[in-house]
Design a protein that fits this description.
single chain; 219 residues; 7 helices; elongated
């Protein structure tokens, strides 16, 4: 009975991991398409300040599913590092998301409003000051996202390395390594690409991982 319960727990966690990692890969594309469609159809203006908030809600729902998967696998393999480091990465991502929303609502949108005012009435505001303010905001976001990227890379490496060690699925080790390198290099565009490739290996890991055999479970 215990073995059956563990098997069901493993299957549930593995399935959640498959769905969550696939959605993490596809969500940016899906949200970009939705945002473009809404803007073109004039249902929701692209400059609407609440659009960033709407766009992150599905992302956090997917990450919660991912955390649930990693928590289940951590219990299945009796390895808390799998879940703890995933949770730390989620907290870091959540912090960056909150920072990004605050910056968007209180800094980027006012700058864009000033730019539109300049277009409609040249001379009403200084174009130089607009671009200077925008540059300062971009630099701040760049530095903040770089720091978060490094933290995410470290935590995901620890989580996936622990999962690879316990499951024997080496795709997770590749995922952890690539996400670590991608996080370190997040300060440049190539870092995001490497991180994205790491997620692909994580998807492969969830699809190819297998449960422990009966002998290791009874041990």
């Amino acid at each position: 009975m215990i073995l059956v319960q563990k098997q069901l727990s493993f299957e549930s966690s593995r399935q959640q991991g498959r769905i969550a990692t696939l959605l993490i890969l596809l969500l940016p594309i899906i949200m970009a398409i939705i945002s473009m469609t809404l803007s073109l159809s004039r249902i929701l203006p692209s400059t609407n300040p609440y659009l960033p908030i709407i766009s992150v809600i599905p992302s956090y729902a997917v990450y919660i599913m991912f955390l649930s998967s990693m928590n289940g696998l951590a219990k299945y393999y009796s390895e808390p590092k799998i879940y703890k480091n995933s949770l730390y990465a989620f907290i870091a991502s959540t912090s960056s998301g909150i920072i990004f929303l605050i910056v968007t609502l209180f800094f980027i949108n006012p700058i864009l409003s000033q730019f539109y005012a300049y277009i409609n009435n040249p001379g009403s505001v200084s174009l130089t000051s607009i671009f200077l303010s925008l540059f300062q905001v971009i630099v701040f976001i760049w530095i903040a996202m770089s720091i978060v990227g490094i933290l995410n890379g470290i935590f995901y490496r620890r989580a996936f390395y622990a999962l690879a060690e316990k499951s024997g699925e080496q795709n997770f080790k590749q995922a952890g390594l690539l996400m670590f390198i991608g996080g370190i290099l997040m300060i440049i565009i190539v870092g995001g690409i490497i991180f994205f490739i790491g997620l692909i290996f994580a998807v492969l890991g969830f699809f190819s991982m297998k449960p422990k055999d009966s002998q290791s479970q009874s041990a």
